Here is the input.
Amino acid sequence: MHEPAPFQAAGRLIDFMRQADEPGLINLAAGVPGLEALPRPELEEAFRRAFAHDGSAMLAYHHPEGDHELRELLGARLRARGAVVEGRELIMVTGCTQALQLMLTVLVKPGDIVACEAPAYYGMLELLSAAGARVLPLPVRGETGIDPEEAGPLLERWKPRCLVVCSTLSNPSGATLPDATRRRLVEICRRTGTHIIDDDIYADLLEGGAPSPLAHWDEKRDTVSYVSSYCKSVAPGLRVGVCVPAPALREQVATLKCMQDLHSAVVTEVALREFFKMGAMEPHLAGLRTRNRRRREIGIAAVQASFPEGTQLVQPRGGYMLWATLPGIVDFPALRAAARARGIAFGAGTVFFPTAAERSCIRLNCAKATEEQLTAGIATLGGLLREALEPAAAA
Here is the structure.
């Protein structure tokens, strides 16, 4: 039975981020790209052009919604994917997390019902917990994500204030919603008065190219707001994100953003603008998708060779994370301690659910460690899992 309920988030974003640059750690936990995947030469040239073109102007206070030309460029990219949006409607933000936080602050009051995927990104769950929301989990079913036939009756019954969904390469499950599901979810949510927050952060990593965002099916422009960033597709240190609220919410979001920090980092926005104008984005994405696919293949082979028999592994069509469902219940605190003693960190599945999970799951980041570390780390983790689960199987 899926019912909305308040909860205390099990994971803390700050704990994952503190591991991101820890020396000597085989980091299979935090969802961050490896340094060698970052387009450093192109970004160095983009920063040089930014200073040459904008000079001191980009070191001053700036427009609250962000660099005008960058917003026009990003608006054009969204239109090419089927969204009806103008550049002036975009609000530049400091990473996708700020975009989510802004939208939830505007939409959700304590006690409101919010629907989300189960599993879902632990950082988003932490935001929902802090907002005092009652969370309605919508189960993710394999590589195609939320099933509208299952989710529809739940949305009809509870009529949540909003639905937060990572529509492409969802973190952590790797699921990508088919077009038919996207259209159906928009239809259902319009009928139930449920506002959709479409987290599109991984769309550019999908092999074959980014699909249409949910806004493509929102002809009335009253049901879907869009959030994303270039932290996964270009470089996380830029901290450049984007928020496109539905028109009726835009002024509230822009005002709240300005109250929080006046505006985001102008220098990195202008550098990203120049990165696009150089024509660097598409070649970079082509190389990044190839690298991610190789890393996933290495990770999949290592899981299949070392994890307990009966492990179920989602094989996504892009990105650099794997989601494994284990054949038994794992004592994650004990497993985490044993893995850390061997210099390995991983994402325990418990932090990705607002309710107790029926089975134990693990998220593995294949991007940050070297290829040798990736294979060795997964093999060691697999051995620890077999040790942990074999006694239970024998009993």
Notes: The CA atoms of residues 101 and 127 lie 7 Å apart. The chain is about 40% helix and 15% strand. The chain has a mean pLDDT of 94. The longest strand covers residues 113-118.
